[in-house]
Amino acid sequence: MFPSFGEFEFSKSYSINTHLNLRLQNKSQKGIIRGKGGIAEDVSVLGLQVSNSMAGGKALRMAYFVERMLCANGLVLPVGGAQARVIHVGGQVKFKQRLYEKMDVVVGSLSTVKETIEQLGDIEFNAGKLVRHADLKALFSIVPDKDLKKIATENFSEDFKDRITQVDKEKRENERNIKRITSIPDLIGGQFSDKVFKSSYRDNATMFDFINVFTEEAHKYKPEQRLQIEKNTGELADFIAKNKQVFA
């Protein structure tokens, strides 16, 4: 499949039942966020994740992966459309030809991942804008076995509960959701998230910092769940970057 890794080198792989997930890191392209208050660059390595089934029951799939070097968090970003899949049909020669053609397209657009990361690093974390524009059901269920909406609601203070009963129903729910999203870094954030959301290392948190709260949480899970969390997080990251005008 890869006669020569060329601009890529092996990063890691996961074998889950009959499915293999292979990650290849690009040697040259990196996403760099300029810290607001720090003195060093915040670097993320970029690469490809290739998923295949030993039994051939599922299409070979390709996605981008991002790993923030600060905390070694993973993030799986979608390639999208027909570019991301190669169906297991036809002879070996034809299959390889189609695979190489798709791979060329995917590798050729890796620079878009760099742009996505840097765009997320330029957008200030704003819970209100996430409430207005994001799919909240998907956001609160990024971690499959945690109902973040329920957990965050249970942590509302009594003062907040009393205050929001004085406003109309829609505004009350918006305020609740802003409070819920704002509390997520406290509820599931790890040591690296805390350095952003609970310290003065930067003068503000970014959407990339918020995204990394989920990918840091993913480290607590087994590979199958971890890959799903990284994929779910990647879809949110991709949405924010593609709609940067409403979030900026």
Count of separate DSSP helical elements = 11
Helical content stands at 40-55%
The separation of the N and C termini measures 41 Å
Radius of gyration: 20 Å
Shape designation: globular
Low-confidence stretches: none
Q: Write down the overall mean pLDDT.
A: 82
Residues in β-strands, percent: 15-25%
SSE run: EEEEEEHHHHHHHHHHH
Per DSSP E runs of 2 or more residues, the count of β-strands stands at 6
Give the domain tally.
2
Largest sheet: 6 strands, antiparallel
Q: Which class of secondary structure composition applies to the elements? A: alpha+beta
Please tell me about this protein's structure.
The radius of gyration is 20 Å and the shape is globular. Helices cover 48% and strands 22% of the residues. Strands 1, 2, 3, 4, 5 and 6 form a six-stranded antiparallel β-sheet that branches. It contains eleven helices and six strands. The chain folds into two domains: 8-121, no CATH class; 124-247, no CATH class. It has helices spanning 92-108, 111-122, 127-133, 136-140, 148-154, 158-164, 169-188, 191-197, 207-218, 223-242, 244-247; strands at residues 8-16, 19-34, 41-53, 60-68, 73-78, 85-86. The mean pLDDT is 82. With 248 residues, it is of the alpha+beta class.
Outline the fold blueprint.
Elements: E1 8-16, E2 19-34, E3 41-53, E4 60-68, E5 73-78, E6 85-86, H1 92-108, H2 111-122, H3 127-133, H4 136-140, H5 148-154, H6 158-164, H7 169-188, H8 191-197, H9 207-218, H10 223-242, H11 244-247
